[in-house]
Every structure is written in C-alpha cells, then in structure tokens.
C-alpha cells in the first residue's frame, strides 16, 4: 500500500509491515552518485588501458599524492596516507593495490644506511670490451648479478660499454672485487672512479605532472 504525502516529495511505502520514508530528492542524489562512481571506474579503466598502449602509467592528482607519500615512507599505515591525500581508507587502499597490480609500484623495501652497514665506499666502474656477442653478454651479466657489491649495472652509449656502481667497505675490499671480476670475464679495459662525497642520493622518482598539481 502506497500513500502519497508532502505533495509527492515523500512517499510512505509499506513493505512487510515496515514503514519506510523515501525522499525523492535523496533517491535522485543516490542515483547521481552511483552514475558518478560508475563513470569514475570507467575513466580509471580507460586510463589503465591507455597506459598499457603508451607504455607509461597515466595518473591523476590523487595517485601522485599517494605515490609521494609512499616514496617518502612506505611503512606508514594506509589510514595515514588516506588522511593526507583526502580519501577514505578503502578507496586509498584500492588505488595502492591497483598500482601494485599494474606494476607501477614494484615492491616496498627498507633502505639501509651504507655507512652503518660498513659499505660506505662507492665506486663507479667503467668497463670497455670488444666482445659484443650474446654468449659473452650473458656470461658477463650472470657474473655481475652474482656479485652483491654491485648495486647498479647499466649498458651505456658512447666510449664506455658498461657502467657499474659498487659499494664496498674499503680499498682492499674493492681490490678483491676487481680481481674476481677480471679473472672471470674477458674485458678490454676497466677504470674505477671513487666517490669522494655524496652530494645527493634519493630513491624517490619525480612524479610526472606533479608541477601542475602544486
């Protein structure tokens, strides 16, 4: 049984003996909110699809804020991140989960202090070789991958073929590393540059579009 009241703005609906009052404007608000949520989900899906096509991830302002917080301190609770970026906990958690699933967030790690760990000496090792075949490269890459002192390893353009960043306790430890390297792989030239002072070091990447968000 349905009885109209308040000139159509409120309807009294008897359902199993329970009286429920529904404001028409409230119903419309819920409907519009649902459409907005569906549109937002569709927009996020389109961004993800375009990201895969273009090879980079398309982020909105909130994504960038979340990533900035995670790059600063990945151990902080999601509730704290949500409060800082202006979201409730569940939507914030879903965004983080989505970025992890899409590979934008590779992993969460602890950053150790090299000095306190006893590996405060950084050495940049430039390698030249006249070997450029696949078998040699695999042997070289496998060798470098097995050496924990190497924390970065790049194939370069220009005069240097490969560049390594090595962390060791002291010169004696580096010499052991060097002797092991040249004994196991055929190299044309190896030159080492020792860092005298660390001016800047960060693992935080610049976030595209963050300048526009400020």
The helix/strand series, from N terminus to C terminus, equals: EEEHHHHEHEEHEH
Number of domains: 3
DSSP E strands, number: 7
Distance N terminus to C terminus? 56 Å
Topology:
Elements: E1 2-5, E2 10-15, E3 18-23, H1 24-54, H2 61-72, H3 78-85, H4 89-101, E4 121-128, H5 134-145, E5 150-155, E6 162-168, H6 171-184, E7 189-194, H7 210-213
Antiparallel strand pairs: 1-2, 2-3, 4-6, 4-7, 5-6
Your description of this structure?
- This is Putative transcription regulator protein.
- Keywords: DNA-binding, Transcription, Transcription regulation, Transferase.
- Residues 59-120 form the HTH asnC-type domain.
- The protein is an alpha+beta fold.
- The chain is 44% helix and 20% strand.
- It folds into three domains: 1-56; 59-111, Orthogonal Bundle (Arc Repressor Mutant, subunit A); 121-194, 2-Layer Sandwich (Alpha-Beta Plaits), CATH 3.30.70.920.
- It has seven helices and seven strands, in the order βββααααβαββαβα.
- The strands form two sheets. It has a four-stranded antiparallel β-sheet, covered by helices on one side.
- The longest helix has 31 residues, at 24-54.
Tags for this entry?
single chain, 214 residues, alpha+beta, Arc Repressor Mutant, subunit A, Alpha-Beta Plaits, 4-stranded antiparallel beta sheet, 3-stranded antiparallel beta sheet, 7 helices, DNA-binding, transferase, EC 2.7.2.2, Putative transcription regulator protein
């Amino acid at each position: 049984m349905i009885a109209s009241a308040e000139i159509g703005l409120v309807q009294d609906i008897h359902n199993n003996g329970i009286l429920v009052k529904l404001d028409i404007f409230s119903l419309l608000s819920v409907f519009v909110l649902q459409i907005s949520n569906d549109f937002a989900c569709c927009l996020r899906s389109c961004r993800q699809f375009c990201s895969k096509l273009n090879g980079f991830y398309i982020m909105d302002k909130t994504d960038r804020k979340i990533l900035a917080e995670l790059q600063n301190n990945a151990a902080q609770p999601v509730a704290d991140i949500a409060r800082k970026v202006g979201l409730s906990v569940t939507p914030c958690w879903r965004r983080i989960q989505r970025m992890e699933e899409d590979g934008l967030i590779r992993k969460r790690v602890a950053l150790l202090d090299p000095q306190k760990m006893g590996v405060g000496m950084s050495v940049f090792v430039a390698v030249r070789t006249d070997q450029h075949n696949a078998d040699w490269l695999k042997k070289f890459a496998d060798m470098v991958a097995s050496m924990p002192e190497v924390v970065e390893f790049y194939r370069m353009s220009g005069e240097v073929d490969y560049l390594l960043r090595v962390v060791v306790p002291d010169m004696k430890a580096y010499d052991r590393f060097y002797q092991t390297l040249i004994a196991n792989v055929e190299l044309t030239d190896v030159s080492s540059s020792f860092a005298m002072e660390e001016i800047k070091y960060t693992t935080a990447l610049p976030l595209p579009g963050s300048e526009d968000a400020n």
